[in-house]
Amino acid sequence: MKNKEIQEKRIKNYFVEATREILKGEGLQAVSVRNVADRAGYSYATLYNYFKDINELIFVCVSDFQEECKIFVAGKSSKKTKGTERLKASVLAYIHYFVEYPGIFDLFYLAKPTGAGINSAALHLIAKSLDDVCEEDWNYCIRENLIPAENIENLKSQLRFSVTGMLLFYMNRRYPETHDEFLLQVKKQMDTIIKN
Amino acid sequence: MKNKEIQEKRIKNYFVEATREILKGEGLQAVSVRNVADRAGYSYATLYNYFKDINELIFVCVSDFQEECKIFVAGKSSKKTKGTERLKASVLAYIHYFVEYPGIFDLFYLAKPTGAGINSAALHLIAKSLDDVCEEDWNYCIRENLIPAENIENLKSQLRFSVTGMLLFYMNRRYPETHDEFLLQVKKQMDTIIKN
DNA sequence: TAATTATATTTGCAGTGTTAATAATTTTAG
DNA sequence: CTAAAATTATTAACACTGCAAATATAATTA
Prior knowledge:
Two copies of one chain form a homodimer. The first copy, chain A, has helices at residues 2-25, 33-40, 54-77, 84-100, 102-110, 120-127, 129-133, 135-143, 152-173, 179-193. By secondary structure, chain A is mainly alpha-helical. Chain A folds into two domains: 1-51, Arc Repressor Mutant, subunit A (Orthogonal Bundle), CATH 1.10.10; 57-193. In chain A, helix 9 (152-173) packs antiparallel against helix 10 (179-193). The A-B interface holds A 29, 109-110, 112-113, 120, 123-124, 126-127, 154, 157-158, 160-166, 168-169, 172-175, 185, 188-189, 192 and B 29, 109-110, 112-113, 120, 123-124, 126-127, 154, 157-158, 160-166, 168-169, 172-175, 185, 188-189, 192.
């Protein structure tokens, strides 16, 4: 009965791949049962044989994008000198990722996790998304005593809420109005939270 | 031709009132053209004689709620001693308002301003929402030299993004899981940003 | 009172998510 | 290798959504 499992997993993945493509390309609002099934090469009702509802399917994509984001960030901050400088570069790259793919921002922070497939694992992944992406940077700062260990958790929280708040305002409320202003604001906030 | 205007304004207000009621009660997801028109006592197509689309109608409610929020906050923080203490109480009351009315949080921070009625005035109002609610508190702190004047704008930004970020995580991502944990986190963040 | 204008409603269309009944396929049993 | 059983995919249908054009009603003006 192992074949059944890997076959099911394969078909599930066709739907997930289709969803990911739509999310990255046209955005969250373009993800619909019919649209996804079309791209996956199945009838729309077939989707319900593999996922409880469209919401479950959408949130299944979170872990893939988180992984992709991690690689994206690592590629952008690897050249920087380790320490608070690279930490800031990682945060900046994290922000860059979501500005580049607004559909993924919508998925991570705006989409409502309703219906049968609440997928609390995905919600947890999102809550720890920035921490996860910056994990190595934080660890280095602790090892090298660049930041007092007892401050780390508080700093992580500050960064998490501040970054998410700025992204929310910029992506969803057109504030600030220009991308340059936005980046300036991000750097200012980062410098306020992460001294040196 | 003044009668025409006040009549039109009256009917517009019937739709706005209905929308506000639904937003506060059942939430943003319950606001639909049919639902609003039903409650307003009109056919749903009539709505389009007074508003470009449902999105415009929704964002028209922002100023009313902002006003209501201001009164809500003032009532909760008026007893506190002026200064940073009352400032923190105001921020806490602001958060309390949106936790009490999730539909209004959805409107302020989650709803997509798409379609014909982008209503950039409403977006600006939202961006300055917390600053507006805390205006008196900030002014008092400046007058009494409780906070260096050159820090004010940066502190406002920090508070704005941090508070919105925390609200977003708590309301939309179930993080933290309990209300007590959430309040503890809010207080911690506030104390970090506003010293004394 | 009749014609004109303004307002409201009905009808219709193209979407959405989801489910039940049906069709096609694959697997199992004889 | 064929017949029955189980699995999987599809069509049809329902109740929604936002929105627009055509139609009906009401109010205003001539």
